Amino acid sequence: MTTEVASCAKKSRGRPKVFDRDVALDKAMTLFWQHGYEATSLADLVEATGAKAPTLYAEFVNKEGLFRAVLDRYISRFADKHEAQLFCEEKSVEDALRDYFSAVATCFTSKDTPAGCFMINTSATLAASSKEIAHTIKSRHAMQEKTLCEFLTQRQARGEIPADKCIGELAQFLSCILQGMSISAREGASLETLLQITDTTLRLWPQMLKI
Amino acid sequence: MTTEVASCAKKSRGRPKVFDRDVALDKAMTLFWQHGYEATSLADLVEATGAKAPTLYAEFVNKEGLFRAVLDRYISRFADKHEAQLFCEEKSVEDALRDYFSAVATCFTSKDTPAGCFMINTSATLAASSKEIAHTIKSRHAMQEKTLCEFLTQRQARGEIPADKCIGELAQFLSCILQGMSISAREGASLETLLQITDTTLRLWPQMLKI
């Protein structure tokens, strides 16, 4: 990241440093992901992004505005790509789920980003004063279960899941495992461990459809 | 809790207010559970416990000392009781696991304590400066998986689990589900939802032993 700022500064030699919104958002994302929303101060964000405080205020109004922009960027950089693994009609249900779980596991354990799930980490310890942000993160996080519901409903309509199977319960169970994987990752579990959990889940899948 | 302090004050009328260590620890526990270790300041702890700062310092030295005492109390008030559900030789493996999961689910969703797991919540956003506390919480939290391992190993020795089944993998998977339940609870899942997840897990149990 330092390199990007440096090269950006070089390009604009003699002119005011160009504010790179995406670079700033990525640096802010790392801070929020690591320390949570509450514990990340605007001063920390100013320091990490290398932007001047007035620039950040002009662009995002306040910490909440910056966080919302970071959340959008997180979704386009990560969540959308994970979900694309799921919504691929040529794949079997098992393959789509395995690819989705593997993509999420890879993200949780990637060395390029803090360990665990961005949304679980950021919402960990929200103060009473951050109700709106808490609501935003929770709604977005609940979307993971909704996305799984949507995917499973499509596959049920195609006859790949028994018609009498409760999709809500299935999605809830799969979502619980993904959340558990996030905590395991934060506590140091390796990608290998998470892929083993994924494998167990998929080997149980045929039985999940029967019980 | 206020009532306890009041009645304690009444009893010691005319003498200095008696410091009730357990009441103070329970109040500190609620704060740490709700806001995490990092975001809970000594000033917050002084206010919540109603104790004077010098009393807290004399008793616990510093925030870290107080947290360690809270952790011990959490273990005796909660963790030990949950584990007792597991280590009951008369129960079948399934019954022991169901009772253990149900006890944990009840704790995660109890109105008497903040939602979710004390250890997952407190360790959510630890600063680099809190390495020792991070280590303490992680070691203690890893004990959940170790406890499951110990239980499953005992049952394998009794022939209730196939001899060739990898206990480590089983414990890892069950532990992942418990961690996911903690996050679900923190995001508002009801006891009913967590018991449904428990039920699904137990209905998958025979298959877990086969795959």
TrEMBL record, chains A, B:
This is TetR/AcrR family transcriptional regulator. Keywords: DNA-binding, Transcription, Transcription regulation. Residues 41-60 bind DNA. One of its GO terms (molecular function) is DNA binding. The keyword Cytoplasm does not apply. Gene3D superfamilies: Homeodomain-like, Tetracycline Repressor, domain 2. Residues 18-78 form the HTH tetR-type domain. InterPro entries: Homeodomain-like_sf (IPR009057), HTH_TetR (IPR001647), Tet_transcr_reg_TetR-rel_C_sf (IPR036271), TetR_C (IPR011075). Coiled coil: none annotated.
